[in-house]
Amino acid sequence: MTSLFRPFQRSYNYLYRTAHEKPVMFYSVLLGVIGPVMTVVIPPIRQSFGYVPPPAIPSSYPLPNRPRRPISGYEDE
């Protein structure tokens, strides 16, 4: 039965040693792995806390429902 868990123990020992000898590489890989996982895990957690996404920002200015009046009195001449 111990031979079944031996690869996991070796991986743990390797990660433990790498964290002490090369911490920059270890934490860079750790953050690189956590990033994609967070894109799947975080949205359901936010919704469970009651987060409501904000309304979409309008992409154009709304035009009034009336005829346009010509502008007068702003001539530069």
Automatic annotation (TrEMBL):
Annotated segments matching region Disordered: 55-77
Keyword Ribonucleoprotein: no
Stretches that traverse the bilayer: 24-45
Keyword tags: Membrane, Transmembrane, Transmembrane helix
InterPro entries per record: Nuo9.5
Keyword Transmembrane helix attached: yes
Domain of life: Eukaryota
Protein name in UniProt: NADH-ubiquinone oxidoreductase 9.5 kDa subunit
Species the sequence originates in: Lentinula detonsa
Taxonomic classification: Eukaryota, Fungi, Dikarya, Basidiomycota, Agaricomycotina
